[in-house]
Structures are given as C-alpha cells and as structure tokens.
From TrEMBL:
Any one Gene Ontology molecular-function term assigned to this protein's record: pyridoxal phosphate binding
EC number, UniProt record: 2.6.1.62
Protein family: Belongs to the class-III pyridoxal-phosphate-dependent aminotransferase family.
Taxonomy of the source species: Bacteria, Pseudomonadati, Pseudomonadota, Betaproteobacteria, Burkholderiales
One Pfam family from the record: Aminotran_3
This protein's UniProt keywords: Aminotransferase, Pyridoxal phosphate, Transferase
Domain of life: Bacteria
Catalytic class of the enzyme: transferase
Cofactors demanded by this protein: pyridoxal 5'-phosphate
Species this chain originates from: Thiomonas delicata (Thiomonas cuprina)
Protein's recorded name: Putative aminotransferase
Length: 466
C-alpha cells in the first residue's frame, strides 16, 4: 500500500479523542494533552509516517521490538491464515494447538543448549512474573523453600506488573505502588559513569560491580538467595553496556553459591545483539537457567512473551512438580505463535541474525562512534543493534547538564522534528534500530541524529544555557 492510498486522517479530531479518553503508559497526561499526541499511521521497512505525512526513521524499532521492520507480508499472512483456521484455543485442559507446539520446538532449536522447554505468556512483564513463580517453585522442590530472595539491580527494567516492577530497579516506579514486594532486593548497576572511581580501568570496574552481587549474597546468607536476574545490556535504563569482565564474574558468583541465573532477554533476544540470545554474545557469555523473552519474538506484530526453561528447572518441574499452578488465558495463543514462527523463520532464512553480527552491527558501531566528535556528545558506544551516548555540558571535564533543563528531551524532540526516533534517558540518548537496516539507512539516521545534536546545541546557546 502506498502512502497515497491511505485514507486521510483528521489529526485534530484524533488528538482530541486521544486527549479526552486515552491514558498513555509512562506519561504525564496533562503535558501530553497540552502538546497533543503525534498520530502514527503507517510503517514500511525501517520507517514510520505520522498523520501529517512526515516520514521518520524508527531508530527505536517501535519499543525495541520491530526487529524485522514494518510491512512484512509473511507475518501478516501467517496471522491471517491462523485466524481463519483457529483464531484461539487454550492449552490448559490437555489440549494444545499446532502453532504452540511448532513454536515450542522451534525455540528449542534456536535457544542455547539445554533449553528444551518454554512457558508462554503475553508480555515480558508476565514472563518475569512467571520467572518468580518458577524460581520459588524450583527451590521448594529442592527442599530449600527458604531460598526466596531474588537479587536484581537498580535501574534495571523488567516490566510493569507489580512483580516485574519490583524486580526492576526504577525508583520512579517503586515510589508509585509501595514497591518492591517482599523478597526482592537490588544492587547497583554496572554503569561506570555513575559508579566508577577515578583512574579505574573498565575491566577493574566490571569486576568490582559484579562483586556487589557477592557482597549482597553474603549479607543475606547464600541459603536465602534464590536467583539473580539481569538484562545482558540494560535497555530502558539507558543502554548500559557492562564491561566485558562483568557477566563472566556474575556467572562465577552464581555458580559458587548455587544461585539461579536469569537472563532477561526481552530486548536482547531474537538477534538484537547479533546472536539469537544476548547471553550468547562473547561480551556477555553466560549460562542462564531461565531466559525471559517477548518483544522481538514476533517483531512486535502481535503480543507474545515467555520464559525459556533450562534443564535443571525443567527436570524438577516435570519429574517432581505435579501441577504448576500458573498460566494465562492466552498462554500459547495460536495466532501470536503463528506470527512468531513466521518471524523466526524469516530471521533465519534471510540470515538476519548472522548479518547483524558480521555486517550491520559493526557498521552501526563505526558510524555511531563518529557522533562522539560532536561538542555535546561523548561515550558513543554500541553492542549489536543497541547504542547510546552521553550528552555532556563540558565533555573535557565530564560534567553533565542540570537534570531540570531536560536537555535529553530537547534533543529527542529535535530528533522527531528531523525525522528520526531517538530516546532520551536522563543524560543518555539511545537507539535500537530494526535489525534489517541497510548501510544507507544507517548513514541517513546518523546524519539526522547529528543535525538534531546541532539543533539542540544551537537552542541551548540561544537561551544562554551553555
Ligand atoms: C520491555 C521489557 C520488559 C517488559 O515487557 P512488556 O512486554 O512491556 O511487559 C521486560 N524486560 C525487559 C528487559 C524489557 O525491555
């Protein structure tokens, strides 16, 4: 469908309805309504269009999920076919569906060795709720029911249900709901700009940051600790790429105390880091017991999430567990599973994951790094198809802007104006583009980001803020 074939949209009327009736996630509704929401009406490849016809490169893959890009007829066909044959059936009462069975087998093919089982949910948040249930059930079955505590990290994002928000380490979320729930505690994140010591190498910082896990385990008593959970690269926290020394040391500590390791791969899974799962990237290199996934499993075309269950937990659950009293009406939803199958097959048959590793991600890394010569920008880094940089007030002295100035939001707004979606997280500006981005599209995206940095700097100068 060409843009010209689309019906015209009455932007003002849509904005008015949205403002009158729609409460947006993670949004200050009053200030949104004053400005009016941008109405997105179409997507094709790595681009989206708004109702006023502006073309925008989607540097965030929607919300970290549209890994294959927009407009994939094969995914549409898979959904259409399944909806005609059997739009829905459940998996509760000794029944399954063809797509749920086929996808389970397909996921075990692409997962790291030892992952032969999957539990389906509708989202990453529900996946992490399921993680808590699985972890505690496992230790019950091991005769160690006192092992209840899950350790996570400040500034982690694990979702927005009560349990997933508790696992996450977002203080703004904890404040609005008396979180975390009991049995969850947090250590500091491996973010050197915040926690590094002067003159400390990245390697030494990574080891020291991992050591915070061991200190916490010893403080709590190892026999009380059930699991550690982390994102291979923190996404919503601002694309925090840990030093290469960090994850292997975390793995060593988990092994030493017999603690389960959970890799939240809701962002890093399905090729985002150039491997099927982020834990397989040499920079991460862990052997988790559970893997949470969502987002990229369907490239966002339909909602689906789940947990890949490693051997030791699966065996306990199946051989000793009896009923596992947990599940969702839409666990293994056949239409969502059908789209996931088409998505995984396309990622595989088109060599997308491999191309990210050998071509697209290295090219993005080189081009993104050039942004660090901009007077506002530093620490421009990427891993696979996620990247982030820091907005500095004075790069040489490494001083940041006063948070009240909202410099990141100014930059984000300039990005939108210049036709690229880039996200602001405090001092960091981040991207996670579709995995299918070409070199030309990367060049255009970087040029638009650079122009937005220029515009942000000019604005700050005009207001006498720099
Ligand atoms: C988005 C996200 C979640 C939550 O997934 P939802 O589908 O929004 O519930 C969990 N973990 C990570 C790492 C995420 O990025």
């Amino acid at each position: 469908m060409k843009l010209n074939d689309l019906p015209t949209f009455d932007t003002a009327a849509l904005r008015a309805k949205d403002a009158a009736h729609h409460l947006h996630p993670f949004t200050d509704t009053r200030s949104l309504n004053a400005a009016g929401a941008r109405v997105i009406v179409r997507g094709e490849g790595v681009r989206i269009w708004d109702s006023e016809g502006q073309e925008i490169i989607d540097g965030m893959s929607g919300l970290w999920c549209v890994n294959l890009g927009y407009g994939r007829q094969d995914l549409v066909d898979a959904a259409t076919h399944q909806m005609q044959v059997l739009p829905y059936y459940n998996a509760f009462f000794k029944t399954t569906t063809a797509p749920a069975a086929e996808l389970s087998a397909l996921l075990s093919e692409i997962a790291p060795p030892g992952f032969e089982h999957v539990f389906f949910t509708n989202s990453g948040s529900e996946g992490n709720d399921t993680v808590i249930r699985l972890v505690r059930r496992y230790w019950d079955l091991q005769g160690q029911p006192q092992r209840k505590i899950l350790i996570s990290r400040h500034n982690a994002y694990h979702g927005s249900t009560m349990a997933a928000a508790s696992l996450g380490g977002m203080s703004g979320m904890h404040e609005q709901g008396d979180l975390p729930i009991p049995g969850i505690t947090h250590i500091d994140q491996p973010y050197q700009l915040q926690h590094g010591k002067p003159g400390e190498s990245e390697h030494d910082f990574g080891l020291r940051a991992a050591g915070w896990l061991e200190a916490k385990i010893l403080e709590l008593g190892a026999d009380q600790v059930a699991a550690f959970i982390g994102e291979p690269v923190q996404g919503a926290g601002g694309v925090i790429i840990p030093p290469a020394s960090y994850w292997p040391e975390i793995q060593r500590i988990c092994d030493k105390y017999g603690i389960l390791l959970v890799s939240d791969e809701v962002i890093c899974g399905f090729g985002r880091l150039g491997h099927w799962f982020g834990c397989q990237h040499p920079h991460i290199n862990t052997r988790p017991d559970l893997i949470t996934f969502a987002k990229g499993v369907t490239s966002g075309y339909l909602p689906l999430g789940g947990v890949l269950v490693g051997e030791r937990i699966a065996r306990a659950l199946i051989e000793q567990g009896g009923d596992f009293n947990h599940g969702f009406t839409y666990s293994g939803h056949p239409t969502c599973c059908a789209v996931a199958i088409a998505n995984v097959q396309a990622l595989r048959s088109e060599g997308v994951v491999q191309r990210v590793a050998t071509d697209t991600a290295p090219y993005l890394a080189r081009q993104f790094a050039t942004l660090a010569d901009h007077p506002l920008a530093g620490d421009a880094q990427s891993l696979g198809m996620v990247a982030g940089l820091v907005l500095y007030k004075d790069k040489a002295a490494r001083t940041l802007f006063d948070a009240d100035l909202g410099v990141g939001y100014r930059c984000r707004d300039n990005c939108f104006k210049n036709g690229v979606v880039m996200r602001a997280v405090e001092e960091r500006m981040i991207i996670a583009p579709p995995l299918v981005m070409t070199h030309d599209e990367i060049d255009l995206m970087i040029a638009r980001i650079r122009r937005s940095l220029d515009d942000t700097l000019a604005g700050l100068r005009a207001e006498g803020l720099i």
